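Thread: "does anyone have the structure for this chain?"

Original post by V.I.:
We have the sequence but no experimental structure in hand. Need at least a predicted one for the grant figures.
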Amino acid sequence: MTAGLNSSVPRVDFVTRLLLSALLLVAAAVFAVSGDAWHVGVMTLAAVAGSALFPALDFRSRPLIYVGLAVLAALTLLDQAAPIRWGRFFFMPSHVLCPFFLFSGSAGLYFRRHEAVVGWVVGCALMALFLAGFVVDLPAGLPRLGLDDSQLWVCRHFFSYYAFAVVVSTAVLLLILAGRSRQPRLSAADRGWRRYAWLGLAFLLALACMQVMTGLMKSREKQMRKLFMAIFQLDFPRPPPRGVVDLADRINLRHPSSLLRDDDRAVVLRVKAAAIPGYLRTRAFTTYNDGQWEKNTSLRRQLPQAAAEGELAYTIFSRTAGDPAGGVAAERLEIYPAGRLEVLPAPGDAACFEMFAEQVGENLDGALEPVEWRTQAGCIVVRVGRGLDSAFAGPAGDAVGEEYLAVPLDISPALDDFLRGLLGSDRQPDDDRRTMVMIMRYFRDNFEYDLHTPPAPAAVDPVLAFVGGPRRGHCELFASATVLLLRRAGIPARYVTGFLCQERPWFGGYWVSRLRDAHAWVEAYDRGRGRWVLVESTPGTNAGEASTRAGVNPFSALWDSLAFHWQRLNAMLRRGHVAAVIMVGLGLVAALLGWLFLNPWLAPVAWPLTLWLLWRWAARRWRRRRPDGLTGQRAVLSRTYAEMCRCLARRGVTSESATTPAELATSCRNSGLTAWAELLEDFIRMRYAAAEPEAGEVAAFRDRVRAAQKLAR
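Reply from O.Q.:
Generated one for you, tokens below.
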């Protein structure tokens, strides 16, 4: 719409603006309770009040863009400063959509009266009200206001509070529509009563539907949720996003994990570390039966926690069982999951964790399960390391129970026969380290790694089929066989899953783990040294060497590098490290420049194009620095004129920037400098002539000026 058209359109009248503001504030009041987000209500109120003081904007592209940017900036700052718990809401991401609709609706009040503006504000307010009521459970207090009491009236009677808000919003909407209908084009007497009748009927139907839905949700809450989810999945199927990892609680060797795919390059973890991170464990399993591993269900403790110093928001969780004896320099690893994870991948010797979480649970085998962990903010892990082959240190001594030695009776004789043939008769019972090395060496020398091994027959245990079969298999089979053989040799052992992190991307500075890097290994208890050690028996696995970037093109690597730096930048902002944010931003720029100028595909184009652009910029800047931006003989005359001005200034004839050559010539005649006045008149004649002067004429003029300069000395 053009400016002329908008200028003739008046601003929304006071009554309509007041009703629209009430519609927005009612929705904000509901969201303030359901999302414990009073600050969103305050920001909405401030935006609505500001619309009464701010001059009206024309409904054009530039104001719309500016307002949209302001809304995005407000949403970004809101999510960084006071994030809203997404788990409060059901079916839709209301924690993001509600503030968006509230702020966007408030922005509509800043424009002139237009049909689109009224529809814009009404639509945003109704959508915000709709989303604010989709809560999973009744709000349990308002902690942000310091009201943790779940017996507050708005918490105990939230559905009634929401119903009252719907009634008020409907009444306000009817008033808005009634005000619009008073315009001449809508005031036909023969159909006015019909409009009000239909509106009243719609209002009554809305109340009845709301009452029925409220009763159903209270009496059949679980069934209604299942029904909603079934309809949602049927009509709008949502496949799990690429890179989101589902870490199973149980391992079935007859059906290998879906993570064991050698062609899936989706990134799972990004780690900022000085050296190769190596093994990042997620779960540990102790009980084996008929091809299945079950995790340890023993007691689960909460790690001790302490708030970070100063005004930073993250929490420091520490584990005491993981500290080795002796003083070893600590190493910090910044771990950033690419998607949601229900467990925390970490080295076995990790001592403390700096992260945004309410609490971190740990079982007897060191599996870490954070509660309310903001995975996008990552986690800083401090390890007091024993190297890449470090294992979790607990339990130790007499606490190592019989579950770490348990082997099913039906497969024990076959494993004993295999073990005697492998170790020989000269094995000493207390030589645990030699037993581990011999088992690892046997598998690495006599077996092959193969992800496409066919499953074992139903009547045969998968481990027995593996050790007595074609001598090839995947890491789950190698780790399972190693655990059971070590147990039959009297060495406590457990089955561990996680990720190998040893790939350095094209634009270094960090390490990545992909879905194809999912791995299984063994942790065994060395009784001679009194600690757990990592045992790797899968052939071809070497966590100490940086892996190749097979199948990863530079464009994907650039995108991943940008994603890593952006995620790290957000994490630093949340932690309050402004200096670190600046360094990360510089690293992001450096990664982008490195991709452009060091890439073998783009460098032949980027370098010539950059040099050409620099030459164009320098040439244009050089031309601009010439007097008056002139070229050719006129530029020579202008430089000569500048020399004349400097010489005359030394003789007491000064010229300001606004002094013209003619005025300067008059000053020279008044001062008795007739020769200089004649030179200035000749300059004016040649400089401002219609045609550019000849080069010989300009050269002769320069000689005369230089002669006059010599005489002036």
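V.I.: this helps a lot. Residues 3-187 form one domain.
O.Q.: and The chain is about 50% helix and 15% strand.
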